[in-house]
Amino acid sequence: MLNLSLILSIASLVSSTLAASSAFYGLNYGVNMYACPTLEDVKRDFRILSQYTNTVRIYSVKDCNLGELALKASQETKLRLYLGMWVDKSDSFDREFSALKTIAESNRFYNVEAIIVGSEVMYRGDLEPNELVDRIEKVKSLVRPLGQTKVTTADVYYKFTPGIINAVDFVMMNAFIYWEGINVDQATDTLMAHYQSVKDMSNGKLVRISETGWPDQGDQNMASIPSSENQKNFLLQTLCRTKQQEIDMIWFSAIDEGYKPGVESHFGLLDSNRQLKKDYTYEKLMNPC
User: How far apart are CA 42 and CA 63, in angstroms?
Assistant: First the structure.
């Protein structure tokens, strides 16, 4: 009989092989919490996304009961899943933790890549670093008995503290060069420099890019110009560089999020009708270099 460690090693190898055969390591998947999707909606979206990635990340387990829906949909569509927990100044963590506990009691975490405790909590200043660490440790205590599910947080590249680095199982960094106002010609180089800065402080831990992207419509931000051409250039250059350097990158976002204001609704790989945008082909995404 295979022991647990061997089973987990085989699962990890299979996951790595599948990821290598996908255009993207991962895609970020957001939903409108004021117009919640059904399970069939999430299954449809995940089936579409499975053409381009093996891994999907969500931002909340409680909103729209998305943790439960995403688990069911991802397991049916053979996707890996990052379960996000939204953490802010309110009691959101307590409500997220309660929802996560309910999901965990069903013991169906076999395809969960990690739990992400908070998205840009330090960037927004919603908690002190030690408060975030306490919440990370609480989640670890919940999920550790279930197996090898990892626990981390995601934040902008310059907001990590030594305490947070020590607490997480691996590091997830966000970097949006558009919001830095940099010309798209320098955008991928800038992203790679940010990645290296986090690697330098990571104490040897794995670093993944949890969010990066470029809008194809919206207002210009200094030298950053939203356009289909610029989005395509940044996407393909970033895909090429991250593949060459074997960096796991989760693109923001999977689908245009029309419920968001202004430029924020135009970061999708797919349009709001779930169609691949006209500047891309499957072949080019698979071979971006």
Answer: 14
